[in-house]
């Protein structure tokens, strides 16, 4: 694979990233069509139900697609979903070569798109900038391969690892830049999830506020059309419907309390989902399986130490985003995670992938080491 392939695939990935806030349940995909070393068509997938990246790029390229090379960040589809197969579109346009970053993990495609192209006499290669492409669609891939969403846990802490005062007071540990970053994390998620403790303590709404996203007009408008579903884990139905969380839009409440309250939630525009559990605690894996079945790719957990700790203990966390503020909250403040451990050997091992400054705070991205 040539340097040129990398260059054009990098451009296709950049286009794909424009769909970060709007394509779910679909993956983010970008496409670049190149004739004689020049880009003649570009496209990206914006919303499920709307044309795929290849369609936009082919439209722009017109006749210049004949004999050209198409760079796509995901294997072109071969099935009739909400839209017709892109592999057929590429064949009809007469492209000479297709370069994909990765195979489509969707079992309806899974190699069939590339095979169909090859059978039509098109030169096909796959795997250019694959790890970048996989990172962009970690949620879609996890759902397709494991039937579970990608779970990202956001935590905010002081330099001494505390997350709230003993009273529960936690606003604000981090500064405005970190909070804007959290807004973008919410907007890119299919679900923003929290627990009863957090809602009762902070009166959190878990909404995306368009003016705080710091995105351009086009992406902000797209994000607004596809806000994440807000999910409350409330095993014992402790959070009253009068809370702000329930006033700002529809929500899903996962509970293991008797579902007799369903109509009361429904009347207010919310869904009550009965999930098995024990001792008033929802079985989080079962909840995630149900969310994935509904097309949820990425879940952002913004919860207190108990619920975040429960996700960690159940081995359900794919990534931590820990915002670290230049403050010391002291010894009576609350720890970041409720994770009772006695021996060093029991401590979960993480790998830090990235640390960056966000305003006056620092953002640490870490993933569990899977042994
Ligand atoms: C592509 N290019 O830009 C995207 C693809 O319901 P549909 O028709 O939108 O199909 C959705 C499926 O198509 C999705 O699950 C994934 O397998 C593939 N997405 N494929 O060739 C694109 N977004
Ligand atoms: Zn397609």
UniProtKB/TrEMBL annotation:
Residues 3-125 form the CMP/dCMP-type deaminase domain. SUPFAM superfamilies: Cytidine deaminase-like, Dihydrofolate reductase-like. Pathway: Cofactor biosynthesis; riboflavin biosynthesis; 5-amino-6-(D-ribitylamino)uracil from GTP: step 2/4; Cofactor biosynthesis; riboflavin biosynthesis; 5-amino-6-(D-ribitylamino)uracil from GTP: step 3/4. One of its GO terms (molecular function) is diaminohydroxyphosphoribosylaminopyrimidine deaminase activity. The keyword Transmembrane does not apply. Its cofactor is Zn(2+). The keyword Hydrolase applies. Keywords: Hydrolase, Metal-binding, Multifunctional enzyme, NADP, Oxidoreductase, Riboflavin biosynthesis, Zinc. InterPro entries: APOBEC/CMP_deaminase_Zn-bd, CMP_dCMP_dom, Cytidine_deaminase-like, DHFR-like_dom_sf, Eubact_RibD, RibD_C, RibDG_C, Riboflavin_Biosynth_HTPR. Its EC number is 3.5.4.26, 1.1.1.193. Pfam families: dCMP_cyt_deam_1, RibD_C. Binds 1 zinc ion. It catalyses: 2,5-diamino-6-hydroxy-4-(5-phosphoribosylamino)-pyrimidine + H2O + H(+) = 5-amino-6-(5-phospho-D-ribosylamino)uracil + NH4(+); 5-amino-6-(5-phospho-D-ribitylamino)uracil + NADP(+) = 5-amino-6-(5-phospho-D-ribosylamino)uracil + NADPH + H(+). In the N-terminal section; belongs to the cytidine and deoxycytidylate deaminase family. Converts 2,5-diamino-6-(ribosylamino)-4(3h)-pyrimidinone 5'-phosphate into 5-amino-6-(ribosylamino)-2,4(1h,3h)-pyrimidinedione 5'-phosphate. This is Riboflavin biosynthesis protein RibD. It comes from Ectopseudomonas khazarica.
């Amino acid at each position: 694979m040539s340097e040129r392939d990398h260059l054009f695939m990098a451009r296709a990935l950049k286009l794909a990233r424009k769909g970060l806030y709007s394509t779910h349940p679909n993956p983010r995909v970008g496409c670049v069509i190149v004739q004689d070393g020049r880009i003649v068509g570009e496209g990206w997938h914006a919303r499920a139900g709307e044309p795929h990246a290849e369609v936009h790029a082919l439209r722009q390229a017109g006749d210049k697609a004949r004999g050209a090379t198409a760079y796509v960040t995901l294997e072109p589809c071969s099935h009739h979903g909400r839209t017709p197969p892109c592999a057929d579109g590429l064949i009809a346009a007469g492209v000479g070569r297709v370069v994909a970053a990765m195979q489509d993990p969707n079992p309806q495609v899974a190699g069939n798109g590339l095979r169909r192209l090859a059978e039509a006499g098109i030169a096909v290669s796959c795997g250019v900038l694959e790890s970048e492409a996989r990172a962009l669609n970690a949620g879609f891939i996890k759902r397709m391969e494991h039937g579970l969403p990608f779970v990202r846990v956001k935590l905010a802490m002081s330099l001494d690892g505390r997350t709230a005062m003993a009273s529960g007071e936690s606003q604000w540990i981090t500064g405005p830049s970190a909070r804007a970053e959290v807004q973008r994390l919410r907007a890119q998620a299919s679900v923003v999830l929290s627990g009863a403790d957090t809602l009762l303590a902070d009166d959190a709404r878990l909404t995306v506020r368009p003016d705080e996203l710091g995105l351009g007009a086009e992406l902000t408008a797209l994000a607004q059309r596809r806000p994440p579903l807000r999910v409350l884990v409330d095993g014992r139905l402790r959070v009253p419907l009068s809370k702000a969380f329930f006033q700002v839009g529809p929500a899903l409440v996962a509970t293991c309390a008797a579902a007799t309250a369903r109509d009361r939630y429904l009347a207010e525009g919310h869904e009550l989902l009965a999930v098995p559990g024990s001792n008033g605690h929802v079985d989080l894996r079962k909840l995630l399986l149900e969310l994935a079945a509904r097309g949820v790719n990425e879940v952002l957990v913004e919860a207190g130490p108990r619920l975040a700790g429960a996700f960690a203990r159940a081995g359900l966390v794919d990534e931590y985003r820990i915002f670290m503020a230049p403050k010391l909250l002291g010894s009576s403040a609350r720890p970041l995670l409720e994770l009772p451990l006695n021996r060093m050997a029991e401590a979960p091992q993480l790998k830090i992938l990235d640390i960056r400054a966000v305003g006056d705070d620092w953002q640490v991205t870490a993933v569990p080491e899977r042994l």
